[in-house]
Design a protein that fits this description.
Elements (H helix, E strand, L loop, with lengths): L1 E2 L1 H10 L2 H6 L5 E3 L2 E4 L11 E4 L4 E4 L5 E2 L1 H9 L3 H11 L6 E2 L3 H6 L2 H22 L1 H13 L4 H6 L3 E3 L5 H8 L4 H6 L3 E3 L5 E3 L4 E7 L5 E8 L9 E3 L15 H11 L2 E4 L2 H9 L5 E3 L7 H8 L4 E6 L3 H6 L1 H9 L3 E6 L6 H5 L4 H11 L1 E2 H9 L8 H15 L5 H15 L3 H32 L11 H19 L10 H8 L8 H15 L15 H10 L10 H5 L10 H30 L3 H25 L6
Helix pairs in contact: 3-4, 6-7, 18-19, 19-20, 19-21, 22-23, 22-24, 22-27, 23-27, 24-25, 27-28
Length: 639
């Protein structure tokens, strides 16, 4: 099914780009625009801009840009149709769908096909769990023994796979899914003899969703006691599933994380599910893998506060200290909760009431200094001088990773109080570590420079050709058209109408610029205004990027500049007719330069006197036009 044009237009009409992007990042008004830290990179200085008037965003650190629909596609990792459905749901718009044509079905790309077959598998596993004798007696019984209600089981799309070699394979191929696509999705395997069989057999299944709720992979747990068989097996990485980029439960948790400004981080699938059932919905799992920077960045889209929940196993906790340090490195606030020995988030949440468990999490959340100190000293039992020195060094090492200097200072004070040591001593140790890091960075730069020095000298940059400089003049004409096209040139014409009228007979060297100019001409001729979103969309990615790059967003004169510095600034927007007139003249001059050069080349190779006479006349005509344009631009013409 495809979304109807009427629905798409209604969605676009209702969108408030600041409202949409504000759901994901904290926007600050700066002049007429909004600014924020990029949701796509781990930057320290804001380079992400939103322009309400142009209805677009631009991220200068990642190069991404577009309208509200593009933003949702990028930040959620979903396609165009999914982004439209997300926005329709946000604004309460009923989605009208139309039957897809055979051509549209054929045009579905590999990524969409993967989502389709993965969704089929998820539905198959759910059907098996609830409606097969084996699924009910083994899988459903197991989940209910864990205390999961039917509502919880359905919330996480839990399933079961039969004790058969080809249960899913047969069901999928019967519905028209190919073996190739099942292999690409990691749902089946092929051995050396060419035999094909299901990857998941006789296991309970935990679908893994992306942030938009699409199934992208599966984890499956055996219920047998055979030690030769791995307890969990997982989908391999595919075009839609990169395990380092995703967190189990992020789709179900993201709104709660935003609302509570806190994310609980656990290790396993059942931990997440049990906590949801205990009323703690702002929880995700790293799914048994070491925490990655991509997972931390994913959490940071929704909150800057993470509380890590640990099993009561000191040895295991020490092994995961690196995760705490990585969270600090990304400038997020981190706390930890440790459960009693022998307990984990799953078991402990089921041992008490929902309210009691939530109280436990709040009361027992420790800052990372207290947490590290307690773990390294066995709760303060091993605080002899040698141990204390090691603890201090461990904690200071973690503090040194925090990018924010004020935060570092606050944690140094806390560490001094908790470990009863002079703050100045800790600052001295911290400075040693920071200076050491700076030295290593300089040495790395020096080594890189030494390697660069022994490489062959790069060729000298070529002098810009006429064609190179023509591109920039053509680009400037389009920039003026996109940014100021709706403004008035005079009492009769808009800037867009003036520019398009003046350049109507000009051929552009750059095909993309010419295509965009033609689209602008179509918009103006239909009586509509030039708006950025008319050029932006997944159907025209190159045009979208060009227009976004041309939109003026980042640079503006800050309020109070003239009063504070007594400097008068002038911008082209203060005299748009003059700016548009000059840009058109520069484009004409550049085109005349090219024509004059081509005419001179033709003169050199002309064969007959008649041909030479014609070319000489053309040269005089072109030179007269060139001088006229130069005069209008105010250029001094040499003899």
């Amino acid at each position: 099914m495809a979304i109807s044009d009427a629905t798409i237009q209604e969605i676009k009409n209702r969108i408030d780009i600041v409202d949409v992007i504000g759901d994901f990042v904290s926007l600050k008004k700066v002049g007429s625009n909004y600014r924020a830290l990029s949701p796509f990179t781990n930057e320290k200085t804001p380079s992400f801009y939103v322009s309400p008037s142009k209805e677009i965003f631009k991220c200068f650190s990642s190069g991404k840009g577009g309208d509200a629909i593009t933003f949702v596609m990028e930040v959620e990792g979903i396609n165009y149709i999914e982004a439209l459905k997300y926005l329709a749901d946000k604004y309460g718009i009923e989605v009208e769908e139309e039957e897809m044509t055979d051509e549209q079905i054929q045009a579905q790309n590999k990524r969409d096909s993967l989502f389709i077959v993965l969704n089929f598998a998820a539905e198959y596993f759910k059907e098996t769990l609830f409606n097969s004798d084996e699924g009910k007696s083994i899988g459903l019984s197991y989940f209910k023994e864990r205390g999961f209600t039917e509502a919880t089981i359905k919330k996480f799309d839990l399933g079961y796979t039969l004790d058969q070699w080809d249960g899913l394979l047969k069901a999928a191929t019967a519905k028209g899914h190919t073996e190739e696509m099942l292999l690409n999705a990691g749902l089946i395997l092929k051995n050396d003899n060419g035999k094909i069989y299901d990857r998941f057999r006789s296991r309970v299944v935990f679908p893994i969703h992306n942030v938009a709720g699409k199934v992208i992979a599966f984890g499956a747990r055996t219920l047998r006691k055979d030690k030769k068989e791995p307890k969990y097996i997982n989908s391999p990485e595919t075009e839609v599933y990169h395990k380092s980029d995703i967190l189990y439960g992020i789709h179900q948790a993201r709104q709660a994380i935003r609302n509570q400004e806190l994310c609980y981080l656990v290790e396993g699938y059942t931990d997440v599910i049990s906590l949801h059932q205990a009323g703690v919905e702002n929880v995700v799992a790293s799914s048994g893998t070491s925490l990655t920077k991509e997972q931390i960045q994913l959490i940071s889209r929704y909150t800057k506060n993470i509380t890590v929940l640990y099993d009561g196993d000191a040895a295991g906790i020490k092994a995961s200290f690196r995760g705490i340090d990585m969270i600090l490195e990304h400038d997020l606030n981190v706390k930890a909760v440790v459960f009693p020995e022998g307990e984990d988030p799953d078991s402990y949440s089921r041992s008490m009431s929902s309210d009691a468990f939530q109280d436990y999490l709040k009361v027992n959340a420790q800052d990372f200094i207290t947490f590290k100190t307690n773990i390294l000293t066995d709760g303060g039992k091993q605080i002899d001088p040698a141990s204390k020195v090691n603890v201090i060094r461990e904690v200071i090492q973690s503090i040194s990773l925090i990018p924010d200097g004020i935060k570092r200072s606050v944690y140094i004070q806390s560490c001094a109080n908790q470990l009863e040591i002079e703050e100045q001593v800790l600052l001295s140790e911290l400075n040693k570590i920071l200076i050491g890091k700076q030295r290593k960075d300089r040495q790395a730069e020096q080594r890189a420079q030494e390697v660069q020095d022994i490489l062959p000298e790069p060729e000298a940059p070529k002098q810009a050709t006429v064609q190179d400089t023509t591109f920039y003049v053509e680009r400037e004409s389009l920039r003026m058209l996109i940014n100021y096209g709706n403004e008035g040139y005079d009492e009769e014409l808009s800037i867009a109408e003036f520019i398009l009228q003046e350049i109507e007979s000009i051929n552009f060297d750059n095909d993309l610029i010419e295509e965009t100019i033609h689209k602008a001409a179509e918009i103006v001729s239909s009586g509509e205004q030039i708006k950025a979103d008319r050029f932006i969309g997944p159907q025209h990615p190159r045009m979208s990027q060009l227009v976004i790059d041309l939109l003026e967003m980042k640079y503006f004169v800050s309020e109070g500049w003239e009063e504070r510095h007594r400097i008068s600034t002038m911008h082209e927007s203060e005299d748009l007719p003059l700016a548009a007139f000059k840009i058109v003249l520069r484009l004409k001059r550049k085109k005349l330069e090219v024509l004059i050069r081509q005419n001179d080349e033709n003169l050199k190779t002309s064969q007959t006197p008649e041909e030479q006479d014609e070319l000489l006349k053309m040269k005089m005509h072109l030179k007269a036009l060139f001088d006229e344009v130069n005069t209008e631009l105010g250029t001094v013409i040499s003899g």
